[in-house]
Specification:
This protein has three domains: 54 residues, no CATH class; 64 residues; 53 residues, no CATH class. It is 37% helix and 21% strand. The strands form three sheets. Strands 3-4-5-6 form a four-stranded antiparallel beta sheet, covered by helices on one side. A two-stranded antiparallel sheet has the order 1-2. A hairpin with a 7-residue loop joins strand 3 and strand 4. Helix 4 runs antiparallel to helix 5.
């Protein structure tokens, strides 16, 4: 019997039999034994033993610790990993993953940090958005990389509307902001 609990039987007459178990003993080479174990294996896959027992990478998020930030898109999450005692924040944006340490062991402060991180990421994306720039109509190129007040205020109003939907900003305050943005000097 091998380590897997499989008895290898033979009908050959010249091989001695164990009288206690009436089983035939076969001497196999290492390659033959490996091949037999692969054929008669009861596992789901040949690499399960290696995949299930191997340690995870230290920088991979611990699946049980992943928490999506309430009121924000699912792409924004905080998590823990073995390589750090601090919470980490991760956000997918424009096909890229942005990740940063919150430098906090508190879940509550990590959630606050994640919200700020997301807002800063969206603000930096707005500044890189070429649709906000004043363009020269003859060349369609930005002139001196200046942005118009109208384009920036529209982006700001959109962000504040999202905050109202999440419950972070009141609808009355949003109306006051709209009135200030529409005011004529």
């Amino acid at each position: 019997m091998d380590s897997k609990g499989i008895f290898w039987k033979s009908t050959a007459k010249n091989i001695p039999q164990n009288s206690a178990t009436h089983e035939t003993e076969i001497v196999l080479s290492t390659v033959q034994l490996y091949a037999c174990r692969m054929i008669f294996s009861v596992k789901d896959a040949s690499n399960d033993a290696h995949m299930r027992t191997a340690m995870r990478e230290r920088t991979v998020p611990i699946p049980a610790s992943i928490i999506h930030v309430p009121g924000y898109p699912e792409k924004l999450a905080i998590f823990r990993m073995q390589a750090s005692k601090f919470w980490q924040v991760r956000c997918w944006h424009n096909g890229r993953s942005f990740r940063k340490s919150t430098k906090s062991q508190s879940k509550r402060s990590a959630l606050i940090f994640a919200r700020i991180f997301y807002e800063q990421l969206m603000a930096s994306n707005a500044m890189q958005d070429t649709s906000l720039f004043v363009t020269n109509k003859s060349t369609d190129k930005p002139t001196n990389a200046r942005t118009t007040f109208g384009a920036l205020s529209a982006k700001m109003y959109t962000n504040e509307t999202a905050r109202v939907k999440r419950g972070e900003f009141s609808r009355g305050s949003l109306q006051v902001l709209r009135n200030r943005l529409d005011a004529r000097p």
